[in-house]
Every structure is written in C-alpha cells, then in structure tokens.
Design brief:
Distance between the termini: 63 Å
Radius of gyration: 21 Å
CATH architecture of the largest domain: Alpha-Beta Complex
Number of helices: 14
Number of strands: 12
CATH topology of the largest domain: Spore Coat Polysaccharide Biosynthesis Protein SpsA, Chain A
Structural class: alpha/beta
Helix content: 40-55%
Length: 326
C-alpha cells in the first residue's frame, strides 16, 4: 500500500496534462500512487490519461464517470479519494506543476507533527509572461512557517480567499479528510476553501513558507471560464451561504459573519446588475425575499441601491456600511 495517494480530477486538460504528469513521475519521493478521475472531458484528455496509466500501470490509475458524465470537481475528487489507498492525500490539478522535492519536503515536516491534519505552502502564480509568490496570511500580510492551532486559520482564510491553500500545494491526512466528510459536493468554484475551513475549525495545520509548486494561470481554466460566463456569481451565492451557516455553528467572531453576509449580498447585486435598471432592482428584491434575515439586515443597503447605480452604491456601502445612518 503506497504512503501517499495523489489525486487529480480531469476535465479538458489535454494541453497541460503531460507536463503535470512529468512533474509527478519525477518526484524524488516515490512511495505514491496517482489516481486520475475524468469528469466528462471531450478534448482527448481521457485517451492521454489512459496512455499515461498504461505506461505506469503499477503506480498510475485512471477512472471516469459512467456515460462520460460531468459532476463537478468536488464530486470527482471525492470519488477519486474513494479509489485511493494511501494514508496521506496529495491533490494536484491537471495544469499545475510540482517541483521535484514537493512531496519529500512536506512529508518530512508532517511526519514530525503527528497531531497535525495537513501541511501547505505558497504557490508560484505562473502566468505566460510573469510570475509571483501567492499572497498568504491575514489579508495577504504573510505567514511564518510553523504549526497553527484550530481555529486560527478560519479567520485567516476568510480574510482573503486568494491566500487559501491550493490543493496542489497541500498534504492532508486521510483520517482528517474523512472526519470532515471530504469535499462538499454542492459547492463549485470554492470547494477547496470549504474543505480547508472544515479542517481548520477542528485541527492543527502546518504552514511551510517554501514554494514547491507552480500554479498555472491561463484563459482556459475552469474558474476563469466560470467568471467570464457569470456562473461564478451563482456559485459564490451557494459558497457564502454555506460559510454563513458554518460560522454560525461555530464560535466565530460576529465580524466574520457580518463580512460573509455582506459578501453574499454583494453576489446578489452582481447577478442582478447584469439586467437593466428596473429589472435589476426587482431581481435584487426577489432574491432578498428568499432570505428574510439578510433582507432585514441590509435594508438600508437595498434602499441605497434603489436610488443609485450599483457601482456607486457599492463603494459607499463598502466604505461606510451606513454608519452615518446610526
């Protein structure tokens, strides 16, 4: 039985899969298995993945959904984990690249802290023409390497979603993954953040401030396509509703809940703002009606949104949050 199970959900990743595979196969730590699970690709990814698995049939395994269905990343990652056997889980997306010592460095640290659920580090954000270190820490102000007790990272992660762990830069104990029931399959776009929040609320997490992966940023990524199509706004509504409910079940600070509720309201405005003036206000009102608690809390914001263009009212709300009404 391998020590580490590497998990990769696949979806139309033909352009980058070979480079990702090379970075896994060339790791200086070799006690691993690689589980690739396709989520309904149509660009030749499946054939490429099967070729890789056939060449390395003792270490690399390929699966796909029945009838080439597409269920989303959360569902596919959970199914891939079910097919794996390692006590440590390492995720890598189909377009990311590991440095040669990515597994060995993080595993050596994780082994020294038996009560630690996971270890993660910053990624190198990798654009076609530039690259930079991922901002981490509270509002991107940085983090020192070390062990952090629960629930420290809950507030840190929610302060700036850009600074949350990337799957490709994290190692996670299977028992802790199972303890929180893995990925929330209703969440899309921010499924990683939800997993980390569930773990951070219960367990110790180690942060190691060394770049060990390259996170590719490109036009064909699932998140970029979702943002351009407007789907991400709808996904964010589901995400922030989950976060609000999660925080209310914990001992989270009131400020965290307030900020998440305001983010939810802002998502509604982004969706409504795609329509013309009267239709947009009607859309905003109807969506608030389905969430009475939020409607009461942000009635002043809503009145301002009725009077002013959304871009102007949003700036006023964000800066003043109606302190001048108090």
């Amino acid at each position: 039985m391998p020590r580490i199970s590497v998990i990769t959900p696949l979806y139309n990743g033909l352009k980058t899969l070979y480079e990702t595979a090379e970075s896994i196969l060339n790791q200086d730590y070799t006690d691993w298995e690689w589980i690739m699970f396709d989520d309904g690709s149509s660009d030749g990814t499946q054939e490429t993945a099967m070729i890789i698995a056939e060449k390395h049939r003792d270490k690399v395994f390929y699966f796909e959904h029945k009838d080439n269905s597409n269920y989303g990343t959360s569902y596919t990652r959970n199914r891939a984990v079910e097919k794996s056997s390692g006590e440590i889980i390492a995720f890598i997306d189909q377009d990311d690249v590991w440095y040669k010592n990515r597994l060995s460095v993080q595993l050596s640290i994780l082994e020294k802290h038996s009560g630690c659920a996971m270890i993660w580090g910053p990624a190198l954000y990798w654009y076609k023409e530039r690259e930079f270190k991922q901002p981490v820490g509270y509002r991107g102000k940085g983090l020192e390497s070390g062990l952090y007790k629960a629930p420290y990272f809950v507030e840190v992660f929610l302060s700036d979603l850009r600074g949350t762990p990337l799957p490709s830069a994290s190692l996670l104990r299977r028992k802790n993954f199972d303890e929180v029931s893995g990925y929330e399959e209703t969440i899309r776009g921010s499924e990683d953040v939800v997993l980390w929040l569930k773990i951070a609320e219960k367990s110790e997490i180690y942060y190691h401030d060394e770049i060990l992966i390259k996170y590719r940023k490109h036009q064909d990524s699932t998140l970029r396509i979702a943002k351009e199509s407007g789907k991400m706004n709808e996904w964010d509504l589901v995400f922030y509703k989950w976060v609000i409910d999660f925080l209310k079940r914990t001992s989270a600070k009131k400020e965290l809940i307030d900020d998440s509720e305001y983010a939810y309201y802002s998502c509604i405005k982004k969706i409504a703002g795609k329509k013309k003036y009267f239709e947009s206000r009607k859309e905003l009102y109807n969506r608030l009606n389905s969430y009475p608690e939020l409607k009461n809390k942000f009635m002043k914001d809503f009145l301002l949104d009725v009077i002013l263009p959304f871009n102007i009212s949003s700036r006023i709300s964000a800066k003043m949050r109606f302190d001048w009404f108090k």
